[in-house]
Design brief:
Length: 387
């Protein structure tokens, strides 16, 4: 193995830009990349710019007519009228949209290839995790579904079992849809309840056509660190132990955070880091260390996203950043120069995440425990596990 970790990065991914005022501000990517460098992590990872996903790769997940529609909208954004989800409020068409979307997808596919071939143990593409794009349409700020494409490429290379764990605040609907009938892929999504958040899917009863291949934990609005971590540990480790994935692909949308403007969970940066650490450990326990880690949502673009994903890169590199670490002053100055916002001073929200283990018992009157139990009852028996 040539290196412990790869960071997939091409500066051109910051051209994924839906325009002024759109929540998906590409400054979040640029600032994350600069913070990674400010901590010297460039010396701890191999920084790789993979080629864009080509036609044959895109068609592993997306329909040919949809790819053609993205290309057409890229050439003439003004002609996009909502067909295929392009030219909408969520997904406005912009010049070069196909090229930059294919580039982001290519980074995730390249990460998957590197991990599968043993060129790296872990690979991170924090520009990826665009999990809402469907085979035939854009949705939720997502044009091409890089997460699904990475998984599809792993299957094409010979993987027989790939697990996907999505902790974005929104349901990982596009990845679930892509592999709904494929028992080789186990999709697990922990997200805010569909009653209160887009895309209004991800109910516990959605278990896949392949005997429990889809797992959904629908968390009550307002869930904080203790509940979020309790739900994760009550569902994910046991399912991964049963499934025995050859590769673990994870999506780390930072929009579970209590500062995020588009959702209603109350998770801290410290809990996000705790789940990143858990995913790293689970990859070693159940997938021989093969770990592909992606970004995702996150719309507190200064205070939350760069810190969260810098922790992710550091964990993948084996150089964890202590939460109390002060943030380099040069990065804080760059934040102000770019955004006129004050940057955070430390890599923590000052929380110490703890949770009660599910095996110690549950409260049937508690809304969080009801959500966990609904998932376990829906899926665990299908996989031969006790709910």
């Amino acid at each position: 193995m040539s290196g412990r970790a790869q960071l997939m990065w091409d500066e051109a991914v910051t051209r994924y830009d839906f325009g002024t005022g759109h929540p998906m501000d590409p400054v979040r990517l640029a600032l994350t990349r600069r913070l990674v460098s400010a901590y010297g992590l460039d010396r701890e990872v191999e920084v790789v710019a993979a080629k864009p996903a080509g036609e044959s790769t895109l068609r592993l997940v997306h329909r040919e007519d949809y790819v053609d529609a993205v290309k057409a909208a890229s050439l003439d954004p003004g002609a996009a009228t909502g067909s295929y989800g392009l030219g909408t409020v969520d997904d406005p068409a912009f010049a070069g949209m196909h090229d930059v979307s294919a580039l982001i997808a290519g980074q995730s596919v390249g990460a998957a290839e590197a991990v599968w071939r043993g060129e790296a143990e872990h690979a991170v593409n924090f520009a990826g995790g665009l999990h809402h794009a469907m085979p035939g349409g854009a949705a939720g700020f997502c044009i091409y579904n890089d997460a699904a494409l990475a998984i599809a490429r792993l299957l094409e290379l010979g993987a027989e079992r790939v697990a996907y764990v999505d902790v974005d605040v929104h349901h990982g609907d596009g990845v679930q849809a892509a592999f709904w009938e494929d028992p080789r892929v186990l999709t697990i999504s922990l997200h805010e309840h569909p009653r209160t958040l887009f895309p209004q899917t991800g109910w516990p009863e959605e278990t896949g056509a392949a005997e429990g291949s889809a797992v959904n934990v629908a968390l009550p609005a307002g869930t904080g660190d203790a509940g979020w971590l309790r739900a994760f540990h009550a569902v994910v480790p046991e399912l991964l132990a049963e499934f025995r994935p050859q590769v673990l692909v994870t999506q780390h949308g930072a929009d579970t955070h209590f500062e995020d403007p588009l959702a209603h969970l109350a998770v801290s940066l410290d809990a996000q880091r705790a789940v990143q650490l858990a995913c790293h450990q689970l990859a070693h326990e159940h997938a021989d260390g093969r770990w592909v880690a992606l970004g995702g949502g996150g719309y507190a673009v200064v205070d939350v996203v760069p810190r969260s994903w810098t922790h992710l890169v550091a964990i993948a590199a084996g150089k964890e950043i202590a939460p109390e670490t002060e943030i380099p002053e040069e990065w804080r100055q760059e934040v102000f120069a770019r955004t006129r916002e004050s940057a955070p001073r430390r890599m923590t929200d000052g929380r110490t995440p703890t949770w009660a283990d599910w095996e110690a018992g549950y409260d049937p009157a508690d809304r969080l425990d009801q959500a966990v139990l609904a998932t376990r009852r829906a899926v665990f028996p299908l996989r031969g596990l006790l709910p």
